[in-house]
């Protein structure tokens, strides 16, 4: 099954190139946006379809970025002047602008909005009926397809006064938005009252799977929206779609709103190959050589001589090989360099390993030392029998920094834990992604060649053919016992997932713990419905892994709580009949919502036992906790206790405030 992802036609983020002036709560800058060749080809002769969209995190800090004059395109760079102004006095950002606005600060991007891809009113209604998008409650659409977004009756305050370091981190750090999510807390209000000269951060609920929205900044009778005016199909999913308003008039505005238009996003077809190779000039796409699991596994077999490293009697006999010309390998060629094994005595090496003493010059040499023999910029592929350890990791990072390697392929996850990775391994994968190093796993246990792909902050293993669908899917986490559901409950779960597919369309995927029982049943149902299935597998003694996931991650038993972080990619959670493990996951999920780590979302407790809902006692305890002031009030509003699948879609629409 080939899948597609949908992306907004846009440039990379532009940056401040020079600060021209700073005066009070505003400053003027010169900015430049790099333009890639593909984007230039799309917009050539149609530059009037470009709009500038400021970075969301700047707008959420109350900083408006307004281009002054025309945006000039010179070769592969767009240049313009812009004014940055702090428009929410209560946030106290104005005095900190000189600390934030410095050369190199990312300001925003150019977005191409061609008229022929704009949807009219009939097309929008058709997409809503098909579940291809979900708009906020109480929306209205005119005859040209312009619609009104009514925000939640909710404003976002800061948990504390932001320091200089806080603001700089939020504006410039890679994970600054995560920090902002923790510090920007929602407060329910009866009405949003916007006095003259004030600004406010609010939100709405919206789900864009294959479209992007452009907000109307020109009409500001009911509040002027800041320059973060593009909502794209990847990040616009959920109840925390931020809107930022300022009142430029001389009268009070109550409950600001904004007009918007909708565009078809650009579809990207999934790659048909299972391993990326460079194409010689003039080679047709259909002639692209195919890299299969079998060919890579056979290569490892030739390198290792048919004997696995763990059968050689030493942890340090770890396969390392370098491939420069990958095409030659597919025709029977051999790697350019292969490490033949440790020079030290295996007995001495294992003694060092037992004490874990790598100090005093005792660290043994590993095969990754051969990477130093490559020239800078070689862009080679390194093959490893095992996922890298600490010493190998340092040498791989150095080779990636200098461009000596561009791809890593390993065969086994762990010497001691089989196909499961440690928390340290997950951190190393994040390092490789930051260095632009592709990582593939020749996974014998699953029988495929998997690519490590990030969605937000979390990376998963998947075959490249499912990569587009993985990025585009709205994901629902389903928790449950390793014991199977009854035939009746399994049928109700099928009806539930069918109803959610009707609500959200075919862009749906599920995520489970990857075990047997209820998790396996949910995976089978999802596949029957044509949905992608994900799994966060855990190394346990009381259950196996079902190996039926289209995307997955693997965790050693000591990484149980770390594993929960990987469920953050899910927008919603459904808790089926379960035991102690499910009970723990309920607590972790609710705590994450309370702390703002994940969005507040509808929580469904699903299933029946002895004539009543299975989770009745737990939900009764929730009521007690709220009554005693030990849990927030919103928790009860977000919880549905039921075994009737027909109740779930209307509950979602109510909690999410969808039309």
Report on the structure:
- This protein is an alpha+beta fold.
- It folds into three domains: 4-269, Deoxyuridine triphosphatase (dUTPase) (Deoxyuridine 5'-Triphosphate Nucleotidohydrolase, Chain A); 288-459, Cytidine Deaminase, domain 2, CATH 3.40.140; 473-656, Rossmann fold (3-Layer(aba) Sandwich).
- The chain is 26% helix and 30% strand.
- The chain is built from 19 helices and 37 strands.
- The strands form eight sheets. The chain has a 14-stranded mixed beta sheet, sandwiched between helices. A six-stranded antiparallel beta sheet has the order 4-7-2-3-6-5.
- Helix 5 crosses helix 6 (176-183) and helix 13 crosses helix 14 (518-528).
- The longest helix has 18 residues, at 487-504.
- The protein is globular, with a radius of gyration of 27 Å.
Number of domains: 3
DSSP strand (E) fraction?
25-35%
Look at the structure and give the CATH class of the largest domain. Mainly Beta
CATH H-tier superfamily of the largest domain: Deoxyuridine triphosphatase (dUTPase)
CATH topology assignment of the largest domain: Deoxyuridine 5'-Triphosphate Nucleotidohydrolase, Chain A
Strand order of the largest sheet: 23-22-24-25-26-27-28-32-31-30-29-33-34-37
CATH architecture of the largest domain: Distorted Sandwich
Instruction: Report the helical percentage.
Output: 25-40%
Q: Describe the biggest sheet?
A: 14 strands, mixed
> Quick one: overall form?
globular
Treating each run of at least 4 consecutive H or I residues as one helix, how many helices? 19
